[in-house]
Amino acid sequence: MDFLIAAIITIVGISTPILLAGLGELVVEKSGVLNLGVEGMMLVGAIAGFAATVLTGNPWLGVIGAAIAGALAASLFGFFVLTLNSNQVATGLALTIFGTGLSSLIGLSFVGRIVPQFGSVFPPELARDPLLKVVFGYSPVVYFALIMVFAVGWFLKSTRAGLILRAVGENDLSAHSIGYSVIGVRYAAVAFGGAMAGIGGAYFSMVITPMWAERMTAGRGWIALALVVFAGWRAGRLLVGAIFFGVLMWMELNAKAGGLSFLSFAQYIPSQFWAAMPYLMTVVVLTLISMRDRVGLNAPACLGKPFLPAT
Amino acid sequence: MDSSIAPRLQLTGITKRFPGVLANDSVSFAVLPGEIHALLGENGAGKSTLVKMIYGIMQPDAGEIRWNGQALTIGNPKAARKLGIGMVFQHFSLFEAMTVLENIALGMDAKIHARDLEARIREVMEQYGLKLDPHRTVSTLSVGERQRIEIVRALLLNPKLLIMDEPTSVLTPQEVEQLFVVLRQLASEGCSILYISHKLHEIKALCDTATILRGGKLVDTCDPKVETSRSMAEKMIGAGLKEITKPASRSLGPEKLVVSRLSIPGAGPFGIALKDINFTVRGGEIFGVAGVAGNGQNALLLALSGEVLSGDAEAISIDGAPVGQLQAKSRRLKGLASVPEERNGHAAVPEFSLADNTILTARDRLGMVSAGLIKAGAAKTYAGEVITAFAVKALGPGAMAGSLSGGNLQKYIMGREILQKPAVLVVSQPTWGVDAGAAAAIHQAIVDLAAAGSAVVVISQDLDELLSLCDTLAVINEGRLSRPIEVAGADIEEIGLLMGGIHGEAPTTPTAELELADAH
């Protein structure tokens, strides 16, 4: 039982950053932009959140700082791909390299520092209860991520702004001819994606291991990208997918640590297998859903294409 | 000024310049309230540019737009809609993966709750007798239904001026008639209609006034009911229109292309399956395949060209040799050339030069490749020949295919195939989006090829084109091909009914048809 509770808490914890970054990327991709710089934006958010918390002593300001830093990094990407029409894939990769380097540089002066932690959202007797902590014992960021699943799902499905955003991703030229600002919508989406990735990154440096280490997001930005595809561009499935990927990542951690003694097969499976599983599952899911038509796939039709209106 | 006689829309001296082109050169005309006003011109005459300025997508470099007597600038489409200007685009600005309701909501500027919007949509559809299910996804709709979305979207704004850009190019004759009923009803209620088309008989049947553009300049404003189609066409082209000259007497040669019991399963859930298709085309014969878009024309072209193989080698034969299981390349060597509907990306690679584009289909028949190496000189020479023979306006064989206008690229592609002297030529939509001059040249080339003894299959949604071109035609509907009909003495009514899916019995496809309002 203790084992199960520990497992659930760990899985929720490692699912949260990819859920946050995935939700952001979902909105970005729904607007027709492919931002492969999630890993870089997460690292920028991780160091910005850490630095802001160290300097202000307030983890809430840290999260806000992470969101702003992520949004700024994303806006830089936006300037290149939306204003200058550069290639989205190449620019996204460059953003990852840039974010990795920038975060390492800024992080130099923060190595070895520790940050104050978030207080509990719920009364301590609930949050520390050996059983109830499965529900009440998480960082506020976890609950924020859960709320955002529903907020993003509702925004895309039921609001006019969400409808316009989907329209821009589905057919940018038509949206333009109706009179919507394609570039404006995409800038907003890209900035939102950056803010969410930034918060996801800050979760590493402020909650999981409250200290700074270079490249501490350890490739989770790529898993978040795979997660968006795995979820078929739907917010609800993104939550399911994040937990599923969380289980796989938990298996990887256990395999590395030589744990999982209750599962005899685990000792024969190297940790690399589990590390590869999210990507493998994404390919499988993509293959399955693409057997249906493109509309069933729910992929934005303009994904990754530059917006070039006829003048 | 008395508002009852002020024109709804008055353009004075509208000029728009693009790099290297004067798209509109001081164009002036007026549209009266309740008038159906035709805007006529070849592709590239400047109609689209002019309309885009009226709808606020572009701004004129000079000139004045007056709306109900008031001079103003229309800064964007939103401002245009606010004035009461609605537009139905030729290429529908629809979002495939979204529902009809969502598509219409996107075109509305005012924030309306989805439920209220749906009620208003149903109201407008009732009023004008338009049928549409608001909750269907656009990707599942026919072209006619898609156009209806655009019309409903425009009508919801209670437009004072409705701009229709080539609205009938994809409709059956019956659907065209029903559209005209809606437009006439609108006009009688005081809405002005700016009707862009190059189909002259439609303009004669529908419009009160016609403004003709050529090369960006206004040529004439006339009464289409007084003019003849021919006189308007000549104003549009600026020269005497060449009639297609068919050889007076032709004897058809041996059977060149025989299709027998060709069935191919549909690709994907919305792909149209071909069901038991049979026809024969003899040397010298032009065989037309009529039908509304999305009834299997594309599948038929792919099956004939060899891009999709038949399960049965005997299903298609050329000069008696079964080719049903041969790839496109092998069929080409047997003498079958094909021109698909989509010019950019299917028939030609837009980013390639014209010379490189010849290699795509002519390499084997004209020996442009030896030992795996391309003979660039041969390709260039052949491209030059095509350009000269078909009067293609291009900078030369080195010009990028994508830099050519639609009509010129189509002439080039047709020329590329025809100069290879194919035994059988299959073309789909040969004059889609092509100006009248180029269309006439393409038609003549098809007739000449047939006269030289080749068998030609023309798949087209333009019934007029097929009637003027073909010796025989059949109608494709839901993947089935009707019996062949001799064009001489064909009954247009019957062809129209076949296109609508009615095979001489009670209507079987009531879902998609635009129905007349019985209340009015």
Walk me through what this model shows.
The complex is a heterodimer of chains A (311) and B (520). Chain A contains 14 helices and no strands. Chain A is an all-alpha fold and 311 residues long. Chain A has a domain at 2-218. In chain A, α1 (2-30) packs parallel to α7 (140-158) and α12 (235-257) packs antiparallel against α13 (271-289). Chain A is globular and about 60 Å long. In chain B, α11 (354-362) crosses α12. Chain B starts with 8 loop residues before the first strand and ends in a 21-residue tail after the last helix. Chain B has helices at residues 47-54, 77-83, 100-106, 114-128, 143-155, 173-188, 200-206, 229-237, 297-305, 328-333, 354-362, 376-389, 406-418, 436-451, 463-469, 492-499; strands at 9-18, 21-31, 36-40, 62-67, 70-72, 85-88, 161-165, 192-197, 209-214, 217-222, 255-264, 274-282, 286-290, 316-318, 321-322, 336-339, 369-370, 373-374, 424-428, 455-459, 472-477, 480-481, 485-486. By secondary structure, chain B is α/β, with parallel strands linked by helices. Chain B has two domains: 9-237, P-loop containing nucleotide triphosphate hydrolases (Rossmann fold); 255-344 and 423-499, Rossmann fold, CATH 3.40.50. The longest helix of chain B is centred in the middle third of the chain and has 16 residues, at 173-188. Chain B is globular and about 70 Å long. Helix content of chain B is 32%, strand content 23%. In chain B, strands 13, 16, 19, 20, 21, 22 and 23 form a seven-stranded mixed beta sheet that branches. A six-stranded mixed beta sheet of chain B has the order 6-7-8-3-9-10, with helices on both faces. In chain B, strands 2-1-4-5 form a four-stranded antiparallel beta sheet, with helices on one face. Mean pLDDT of chain B is 84; it is low at 504-520. At the A-B interface, α8, α9 and α14 of A face α2 and α3 of B.
